[in-house]
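Morning, I've got a small favour to ask if you have a moment. I've dropped the whole record in just underneath, so have a look.
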Amino acid sequence: MTSPAAQLESALATTIEEKTARGRTDQLPSTKGWHPGARIGATAELGALLAYNDDGSTGICNLENGRGTWLNLQPQDRKQDHRPYSVWRWMAAYNGRPACLMGRLAPGGARLELHASDGTVAEADVVDGTFAAEIAVDMAGLRHARERMEAHEAASAEGRAEFERLMADSRTEMTKLRVRVYDSTGTLLYDGAAINATD
């Protein structure tokens, strides 16, 4: 199952079925009007597919080994006056996984690139105004993330404090990635940090 439409359909069906079984029918996504957007890790162990609905809803489908497994509804896009994209999800590189950035391009934005300080560049998948990009990069502050977490009981005060420190380190590392957004003629619209304090 590698077609975006099939992955979206699978994620939507699973989400509705599981929420209904748990009696969470007040939180069901709409059953109609969904369209697949940009994606990363289409057939990887873990990937993501952005989705949008005719009613204005947006979401991110979790992908596992090419199959859509869940649809997480996203809040409406926040207005971004200072940059031509909004962030729906970001994840720093740790435990061998690449860093990723996903969201929506503003009107006029046609191409988005992620740039690492070592010169590595990754071009985002762009579909119907949504974008998804991942980049293999060494984030020094997160090299030992797993060991840091495993050194404490997850439910302990120390474990929670270490998790908060890791989140802060993740945000710091993500701000070192740069985003460049271009319009359809190749004109640079934005060159700056991948995320900001509100993402």
In short: The mean pLDDT is 89. The helical segments are 4-21, 145-150, 157-176. DSSP finds three helices and twelve strands in the chain. Residues 95 and 122 are 20 Å apart (CA to CA).
